[in-house]
Amino acid sequence: MPTTTKTTITFQQLGLSALILKALKENGFEAPFPIQEAAIPLLLKGVDVIGQAHTGTGKTAAFALPILTKIKIRRNGPIQALILVPTRELALQVTKEINKFAKYTGIRTVAIYGGQSIVLQYNQLRRGIQIVVATPGRLIDHVKQDSIQLDEVKFVVLDEADRMLDMGFIDDIKSILFYVSEDRQTCLFSATMPPEIMRVAQEYMHDAKEVMLNQEELSLDTIEQSYLVVPEREKFKHLCNFIKKRDKKQTIVFAATKQRTQRLANELKQEGFKAITIHGDLSQRERDNAMYRFKKGTDDILVATDIAARGIDVPAVGHVINYDVPIEPLMYFHRIGRTARAGGTGKAISLVSQDRVDDFGRILRKTEQPIRRLNEEMGIAVPTTQKRPYDRYHPRPSYSHNSGHRSRGDYGGNRNMRSYREQRGDNHSSTYGRDNRSSRYGRERARSYS
After folding, report:
1. Distance between CA 320 and CA 317 in Å, rounded?
2. Which domains, and CATH codes, for the chain?
3. Of the chain's two ends, which shows fewer C-beta atoms within 10 Å, N or C?
4. Are 411 and 267 in contact (CB under 8 A)?
């Protein structure tokens, strides 16, 4: 059976080094979260681990702390740990967390991602790096140019593996693992476990132990969830009203497309709100500036698409508002997980237009916590359900930033979701064998991903 746990011990009892414990205490980490308590002892023993956990549950520390404990510090490197992530934002977030934990160890970590000068990355690498946190495309660029050597890597982490699968990185991951020694420890973290992810685990991991959060943790029960069914033309009015009444400032608003995020942000600013947007068409500098302003509170409303918001970790976020309902229930949970970070509390509100009632009904059937309908409380009649027009929110097959579709709807219409697979049932083994870890993969696409 999968490993689950409730926190009853301290970080010191987990067997971490004194220098790491000092940094944890300094940063206010008092006791491990469940995913940390379950995964850290296994990783310290050298066991391959498959972890199922949402962001905001402490998974970065779950793999980073044992890696930092086991790394051998050498003056000029070499790279001993490789952490693969799907987005630039997550690369920066993970690197920042690791650097906090590694403050007294002398271990150096660098983020490698597309959109940043590769020359700057060359210079960082020359200083001697022990841990690389990278997006697959830019890492392949460095490997091909021999600026990164992976032959001495002893630890590999695939973080948010389901999202890397959805973004089309699976072949790149296989190509990267070709360059890493088979004598390594591998860790895979994923919010969902579709069959493709389990095939990767079977082929590239050895007798992996599975660590899953218990149902209480997965249910996001520290978030007050509600929804309002209104006509599409009235959604913006209610969005403004909810923002005015919020008790905490920092708010993320999710929209279906890049066009809708930009237009929503502009209209919110016209109403006097401090709003900023983040989506795939922005340059790296624009994205970094947007996140800086949001984290500092200069702009307290972030309007985002699903793909751009992945990896955002701002503890002060008190509200998530779904301006557009996601297609799949699992994406709903990813979205609302931007609030109530690491044991905090938050609120999630969804604006459901008539043609989206069926989609939201699937979310209602999936959640284990009540989602309150606000229509009765607010005295707003539930509008008659309408069938969705063919050209609104037309699905597209992948997360590609460049494939656009524009509809005749108010805000445009491409919908950046690929169908998730259903999560596996309980009738599976908790260990996985590696049948042919030395398989060779030739598809080494030297492209940079934004």
Report:
1. 8
2. 12-208 (3.40.50.300), 220-415 (3.40.50.300)
3. N
4. no
Q: Which two tokens stand for residue 351?
A: 């604006």
Spatial contact of 176 and 150, defined as CB atoms under 8 Å apart: yes
Rounded CA-CA distance 42/48 in Å is 8
Q: By three-state DSSP, how is residue 437 classified?
A: coil
What are the start-end ranges of the E strands in 354-429?
372-373, 394-395, 414-415
> In the numeric block, which tokens belong to residue 106?
């002398």
Q: What CA–CA distance (Å, rounded) separates 443 from 376?
A: 56
pLDDT at 193 over 60: yes
376, burial (CB in 10 Å: exposed 0-12, middle 13-18, buried 19+): exposed
Gap between the Cα atoms of 131 and 354, Å rounded: 49
The token pair that represents 169 in the structure block: 């990185």
Q: Is the pLDDT of residue 3 over 50?
A: no
Confidence of residue 277 (pLDDT cuts 50, 70, 90): very high
Give the DSSP H or E segment for 142: helix 136-144
The whole-angstrom separation of Cα 267 and Cα 323 is: 13
How large is the angle between the packed helices 18-26 and 59-70, nearest 10 degrees?
A: 150
Q: What is the DSSP letter of 438?
A: T
Q: What is the DSSP string of 210-232?
A: EEE--HHHHTTTTEEEEEEE--G
* DSSP line for 8-40: -S-TGGGT--HHHHHHHHHTT--S--HHHHHHH
- Contact indicator for 7, 33 with CB cutoff of 8 Å: yes
Any idea what DSSP says for residue 3? B
CA–CA separation, 213 and 52 (whole Å): 7
Amino acid 336: pLDDT = 87
What's the pLDDT tens digit per position in 318-366? 999 999 998 777 678 778 888 877 667 889 999 999 999 998 998 888 7
DSSP state of 299: S
* Six token digits for residue 418: 């690929």
Q: Half-sphere exposure of residue 445, counting CA atoms within 13 Å on the CB side?
A: 12
